[in-house]
Amino acid sequence: MNPWGLSVIRGKWRWLLVAAAALIAPAPAEAHTALKSMGSFWSGAVHLLTSLDQVGFLLGLAILAGFADRRNDARIIAASFAAVLLGASAAWAAGWQADLSMLAAALMIVVGLAGAAQWRAGVLSLTGLALAGGAIGGLAGGDAATGLSLALFSLGAALAAAATVSYALIAIRAVKVGWGPIAWRAGASWVAAIGMMIFAFDCSRYFGHR
Amino acid sequence: MLGAAPPAFAHITSDMGGGVAAGFLHPLTGFDHLLAMVSVGIWGAQLGLPSIWLLPIAFPLIMAIGAVFGVIGVPLPGTEILIALSVLTLGAMVALKQRLPVAAALLVVGIFAVAHGHAHGAEMPNAADALSFTVGFVVATGLLHATGIVIGLLDRSPGGAVALRACGLFVGLVGCYFVYESVGA
C-alpha cells in the first residue's frame, strides 16, 4: 500500500510528477541569517543551492557537458568543486562582499546559448567555464561565512556545487535518446533566457535606467 | 506534495520563494499569455519536425530579448494589442493547421515572443526578487509549451486532429475578444 498513491503511476511518469511537484511547490526562502543556525557545513551547502543564479549556471554547464565527451565529466566536477572552495575562501580571507550577479548572469548566457545550440565543447572550454562559474559562486557566497567555520562552509558549498553538476550529468546521460536531447536543449535555452534578463536587470540598476 | 506549503524561513535579503511563485503564476494567471504559450506548443506539434522542437527552444530566447527591452524601460508600442493578436493569430494557425515554412513560423512566433517578453520584463523591477521571479516565469512558460506539445500530439489521430482544430478555433475567438478589448481600451 502506497500512501502517496504513486504506485498506480509507473516508470518515468512517476518521476515527472515528482519533478513537477518540486517545481511548483513554494520554496522556503533561506539566506544568511536563517542558514547560520544550521551550522557551517550545511550553511555553505544550502547557501549555494538557494542561489538560483549559481544553480542555473551549474545546470547549464551540466547540459553543455552532457553533449560533450563523457571522459570530461570528472574534470568538470573537480573544477567546479575546487573553484567554489577557493572562491569562498578567498572572499572570506579578503573580507570581500561582492555583488557578482551580473557576471553570474553572463556565464548563464554563455552556457545556456551553447547548450541550446548543442555545441560540442572541448575539455578546455568546459573546464574554464567550470572554474569561472565556480569561482564567482564561491566569491559571491564567501561573505555569508562570517562567524562560521570557513573550512566547513567552503567545503559544504563546494560539495553542493559538485553534487549538482554530478546529479545533473547522471540525469542527462541517462536520457539521451528520443525527446531527451530536445528537453535538455530547451532547458539550456531557459538558462540563457534567465541569464539575459538578469544581466539586463543588473545593467539597468548599475547604469541608472531604473 | 502539490498542495504542501513548507514554512518560510526568515530572510533578510530577498523573498526567493515568493518571487518564484509570483513569476510562475504570472503566465498562468494571464489568460492571454496562457493561451498563446499553449498554442505555440500545439502549432509546433502540428508542424512536425523540426518546428516541434525549434519553437520551444527559440521562444524563451526571443522572449528574453523582449524582456530586456521591458527591463531597461524601452517602450514597445502596442504591446497589449500584439499580445491579443498573438492569441488570435496562433489560434487561427492551429484551427487552419497552417503549414508555414520553418523560418516563417519562427518569425510569427518571434514577433509575439518579443511582446510577451516585454510584458513580463516590465514586471520584473516590481518583483521582490527579480532573479526568482524570472526563474518562475521562464519555467512556467516552458512548461506551457510542453503542455501544448503534449496536447498537439493528438494530431496523429484523425479525431484528435479535428479536436485540435476546434480548440484552435476557440482560442482564435477568444483572441478576437482580446483584440476588441485592447483596441477599445
Brief overview, please?
With 210 residues, chain A is an all-alpha fold.
Task: Compute the CA-based radius of gyration of chain B.
Answer: 17 Å
Percent helix among the residues of chain B?
A: over 70%
Mean pLDDT of chain B: 83
β-sheet strand percentage of chain B? under 5%
SS content category of chain B:
mainly alpha
Task: Count helical runs of chain B.
Answer: 7
Strand content of chain A: under 5%
Number of domains of chain B: 1
**Unreliable stretches of chain B, pLDDT < 50, 5 or more residues?**
1-14
Q: Care to count the β-strands of chain B? A: 0
Q: Main beta sheet of chain A, described?
A: none
If helices are DSSP runs of H or I spanning 4 or more residues, what is the number of helices of chain A? 9
Shape of chain B: globular
Biggest sheet record of chain B: none
The end-to-end distance of chain B, rounded to whole angstroms, is: 42 Å
- Summed up, the domain count of chain A is 1
Describe the fold and architecture.
The complex is a heterodimer of chains A (210) and B (185). Chain A is mainly alpha-helical. Chain A has one domain (40-206). Helices cover 73% and strands 0% of the residues of chain A. Chain A contains nine helices and no strands. Chain A has helices at 11-24, 32-36, 40-49, 52-66, 73-94, 101-116, 123-141, 150-174, 180-206. Chain B has 185 residues and is mainly α. Chain B has one domain (17-184). Helices cover 77% and strands 0% of the residues of chain B. The radius of gyration of chain B is 17 Å and the shape is globular. Chain B starts with 15 loop residues before the first helix and ends with a helix. The model of chain B is unreliable at 1-14 (pLDDT under 50). The A-B interface holds A 4, 18, 20-34, 50, 52-53, 56, 101, 113, 116, 182, 185-187, 189-190, 192-194, 196-198, 200-201, 203-204, 209-210 and B 1-2, 4-18, 20-21, 24, 53, 56-58, 60-61, 63-65, 67-68, 71-73, 121, 124-125, 130-132, 134-135, 138-139, 142-143, 145-146.
